[in-house]
Amino acid sequence: MSRIVPSKSVELVANWFPSRAFRRFMSMLRWDIQVQMRYGLYSIYAIITALYVAGVVAVPAAVRPLAITWVVFSDPVFLGMFFIGALVLFEKGDGVLDALTVSPLGRREYLLSKVLSLTVLATITSLIVAVFGQGLDFDILLFLLGVILSSVLFVLIGFVAVARFDTINAYLLTALLYLLPTVFPLVGFIGIDHPLLYLIPTKATLLLLGGAFGVGGPIVGLELIYAISYLLVWIGLAGVLADRAFKRHIVHGVDVGGGGGSFVSVPEMTRLFDGRRFGPVGMLVISDLRNWFRDPLLTYIFILPFFYAALVRLSVPVIASWLAPGFDLVAYYPLIQAFFAFTPPLTFGFMTGLLVLEEKEENVLAALWTTPLTGRGYVAYRGISMVALSFVSMILVIPVIGLVTVPASVMVSVAAVGSLWAIGTILLISKFSDNTVEGLAVGKFVGFSIMIPVFAILIVPEPYQFLAGLDPVYWPFKALVGGASGVPFQTILGYLVVGVVVNALFIGVFIRQFDPTH
Q: How far apart are CA 67 and CA 55, in angstroms?
């Protein structure tokens, strides 16, 4: 019997990726996908994807390709960057990465497993949104290239960013700074272009995604070569940086001061202002103020809603003129303004919810449970402080958006009720999450609470529309849209009174179920 001689290509593959290494890699990949399923990433994204599909199907066919492009760019493409942080921090806390450094599994296999597992989820989500929204009437190859290459890049960038940190809030704040330049190429959709934008990798992402649907014209020739090759160059650079970050911060454990913990800890509280008595709440306030002044990244959270508001003010009128006369976007200005007006309570509530989870894991809440403040008192303090911050931010953000005029009485009263959702966001994340990985997944889902009133007002006639009022955000959202549309103040006041009742019931139910140890 003649001996089968393997081809040179097979030998090259075998030498490049030995069978043992491949088995280790596949075992790690299965583990990563199982962990992501266990923590609800796939189930949460099944719901989120369904909501995205409902959203893009609801918009007029003329703007649906643009809507799909924006949806895929705004979430699935960056999905891996946010979740890689939570997954790595979880594995750090459980000692998985310490064990990994002395195991046969190499760091490149570990990184590749993370990249592939999160890219698979991003690709599935993106394809479902595109196919259900547009059918097969788009260039699938270009679309997949845009999603896969961009997802791989941002997972690697996420690892570079998270390797030095020990807390999810510290990572997310830095990740937001990393992501800030990536939104600049979006101005290309409103007719603003500049050669410097081609230096930002998301310009290549948008060329591939937009070109798949013909948004902004077809992508051919040099633009196509640029888009693919530039993303590959960035992936190579990010891969090298991720490998170095792994060696520096995971293997050698170098701390560069980025592993800052929570806003407050019990030992730090006892050292603040020795000799003075401020009470437990006063100590929390003083500790938080110190952190806000000490860490400029925390100030960035407060600025973020204003950045979005300014972007909306500048871009939406240009988009409206671009769509006219085929589509009247001006008629939707009240909805657009209301949507972005509610970003402060969601943003502040989300970040504080993750903070509460971190302090649960650090047993800060268990310690506070035995003090006069108690664990629920701590959560009440966190919630009330975020409500106050949200109230001020909403009052300032609404005129910054400025798409439509809102009477001062409506603006203030809507902000007073709408800001209560900061507490609701904190409680939902705390209730349905046991760790920061689950907290990120739940937080993504909670973010859609702001989409429910949008779809209800757009699609569902009254009185059936009021069923959406089970969502506490609906009533102040409805009031703000009504105030911008000339609805009588008595009607608006009725919406807000119901909103206060629904929010109070919601908060009352969940705060009683709050457990500082679970």
A: 9
